[in-house]
Amino acid sequence: MAETPTLVVTVEGEKGYAQSIRAGRHTLTSDEPVARGGTDTGPTPTGLYLSSLGACTAITLRMYADRKGWELGSIRVRCTLFHREETRSRIEREITLSAPLPPEQKAKLLEVAGRTPVTKLVMDGVELETRLT
Questions:
Q1: 108 and 68: one domain?
Q2: Of 52, 68, 78, residue with least CA distance to 109
């Protein structure tokens, strides 16, 4: 079965740890903190990973609420990574909405948050193929 790419991101760097990231027509920067030998010109790769999860969560919840006609107010998603030495690392995701919602809407939004595209990638993992050219 033929595969069709759905997203291509290009990362380039010449020296040091700062990396220029092209995602579509957008340019981002990733780097390491000064304490780890970088110049702190952007979030770490792990910070970008957590940012993707948080952004996808907020966007998906907004889309769902807009279709339902629910007012969420502002959406804040805080993602915290906990490294574990002897088992898989853990991410804690906290979603805060400024609008008051009934319990049944909150429960539905938690269910939706568990099915966002990036959540699925995090939970299920993906097949990774690497080539050096």
A1: yes
A2: 68
